[in-house]
Amino acid sequence: MVNYANGVETRGIIIDTCKKLFMEKGYKNTTYSEIYKAAMVNPGTIAHHFGNKRNIASMLYDEFMVKLTKYAEDLFPEEDDQQKAFIGLALHRKLTYENENYRRFVMEFMLDDLANEDESRYLVNDYSAYKTTCDKIGRNKANFYFIAYKGIEAAIDAYYGRYPDKETFEDLYAYYAGMYFDYLPKEEVDDRIKRALDAVSKVDISVEDFEVKAERNDK
Q1: What are the two backbone dihedrals, phi and then psi, of residue 149, each rounded to the nearest 5 degrees?
Q2: All domains of the chain, ordered by start, with CATH?
Q3: Up-side HSE of residue 134: CA atoms within 13 Å toward CB?
Q4: C-alpha span between 50 and 55 (Å, rounded)
Q5: pLDDT for 31-65, tens place per residue?
Q6: String of b and e for 90-109 (b: at least 16 CB within 10 Å)?
Q7: Sign, CA torsion 204/108/30/62
Q8: Model pTM?
Q9: Closest Cα partner for 19 from 214, 211, 215, 213?
Q10: Which one, 24, 74, 149, 212, has the greatest CB density within 10 A?
Q11: First vs last Cα of the chain: how many Å apart?
């Protein structure tokens, strides 16, 4: 075991270790033993700092969604907040479509997290799709939307993981966007979906160990 300088450093080491293991092995197949051995900490350290593996995954997912929200805002500042929410969701769905390891993480984490009594952990105030939904229909209804759709999203990713040639990215994104934003008029949703797809076609995006990079190519 290694004696790190302080709790902040220890937490950082554990988080970085989980980022690597979750992407390489998947959330489900990453064991506590592998985490504390790779991080070179005592077995009880993970529980002390995070409670359990699910809480670490939830934090990583939350932070990831916030990063994508920031990219949508920075790359497309000319768009209104609602459209940025569509674009942020499109960026996330593009990553889950193109990156098999990240798609596996999303599917496995969400299916596991369905049993989490603290469902509010899934809801991130700074995640644009959630934030704009709260603005439109109120926080209570938005909470219902996002909690209910978590299992649906995991199930769809599981299906796509088994049959990767059955759906196009455009069709999958249109389904997700229609599901998340079905409180808006259908004509508006259809228009915003087309605009979001056009926007993400101008973005090069990649992820490695939960570090996401996105930039406009405008070619």
Answers
A1: -80, -10
A2: 7-50 (1.10.10.60), 54-216 (no CATH)
A3: 12
A4: 6
A5: 999 998 998 888 888 888 888 898 899 889 888 88
A6: bbbbbbbbebeebbbbbbbb
A7: positive
A8: 0.87
A9: 211
A10: 212
A11: 51
